């Protein structure tokens, strides 16, 4: 597993968020300046005085190499550590570098407020003279250097807690708590090729059963198995039919049979390589086989990366409705590789963006604005940059929500936005509507319900939601030919009902959802 390097000018927040980030991700924390002082037995100002900046940089490089011989963790770097090309190469080969930036005013304020305080980093390059001028000169000299790092976070207007959370989003590294044992989430382009190393670093054992549907087996099973075998695992691939209509207890039985053939034991690990259906079925099979075996989710669709792979909900459908059988059974880890999205059909990519839009409406207006800049005509050229960050932000919405309410007793119901109507549309259409397409229509219908109930805080809320979804190529109206009475009947069987009545999560503005709203049947029929 790779290390995480925090880099940036003095006062940008490296020391402030470094240790909390390491604690959150269950990693060791290393401070490069402290390691230099430990190795030399001298305070940094004395090293500068005796050997100059050039001598200090040599010491710094030696200390970094020493840290990299230890267990991977979070490493706070000095503000000029990576100006030395060899030191930069060391860091880039060992992990992710997140460069923290801030305005001159914010940096100056933080440095001045920390002067003389215990554990405040010493900054020899800022000693003497006017702090404002010396800091301004330092930033001017290093502006192009700091800008050369692709992962950057401006902390100017962020407090320590907000900076910590935004750092996790930038890095695509999370650790989900609140539902039994915490588990790690990685969003890593190319991560499928390091799968075996990640499993080993997390202490997961074999023999392994790799569950794929017919599509993901053809595209990715050999690649995943090669990574696992390179790390010494024995792997047995279990292939199941693809598609929502196969999300049944019969398919779960097929997976159980595959576990038997793989020799899965109580200490073994099973892996789900596929979209939401594969993850739900494999997780449920893992929850019930030998009364529970460890499982890992490897989502390959945008919809699953953004939503279904998180939260520990597992299950299967019954003829009467979706997800009526299942269990809360979180995976041991989730590894999402956005590079695999390059093989998604355009319709599936759009379907996944519906769940992204849902998360944006729930609590991330900035993500909603990002979608305005992403009119989808083809999935080529959108994968390594925007979609990776979109996945990380969408995941962050769900992770924050499920940590507050892991078992859906309250606010987690906000994640059902669009789903009360959407699940019914899927069922009544005989799954001719993709999940994301149905959810897109459901969001617009439920926004109209919020307007008619007087809950919407902004005018034309449903039109604004519909406009963004249409830009993404998603439907926003109930298809002709679907009986409204049948849709209402399907909603009555929905698992979100309480005391016999369906509970809605309705948007009131972009970024806010109201949960537990009951709506009269007559109004539902009118709004459909």
Task: Give an overview of the whole structure.
The chain folds into 3 domains: 3-171, Rossmann fold (3-Layer(aba) Sandwich), CATH 3.40.50.300; 173-344, Rossmann fold; 406-527, Dehydroquinate synthase-like, alpha domain (Up-down Bundle), CATH 1.20.1090.10. The chain has 20 helices and 18 strands. It has helices at residues 14-24, 32-40, 44-68, 85-94, 104-114, 131-147, 160-171, 195-201, 214-230, 249-262, 276-288, 302-308, 346-363, 365-372, 383-404, 419-428, 435-452, 461-471, 484-492, 521-527; strands at residues 3-7, 29-31, 74-76, 95-101, 152-154, 173-176, 183-187, 208-213, 235-240, 269-274, 294-299, 313-318, 321-328, 333-336, 497-498, 501-502, 504-509, 512-517. Helix 13 packs across helix 15 (383-404).
Q: How much is the radius of gyration in Å?
A: 25 Å
- Rounded mean pLDDT is 89
For the biggest sheet, the summary is: 7 strands, mixed
Strand content: 15-25%
- Fold-level CATH name of the largest domain: Rossmann fold
Instruction: Determine the fraction of residues in helical runs and give it as a percent range.
Output: 40-55%
Q: Please write the CATH class name of the largest domain.
A: Alpha Beta
Termini separation comes to 49 Å
DSSP strand count: 18
- Widest β-sheet, arrangement of strands: 6-7-14-11-10-8-9
Low-confidence stretches: 380-384
**Protein structure class:** alpha/beta
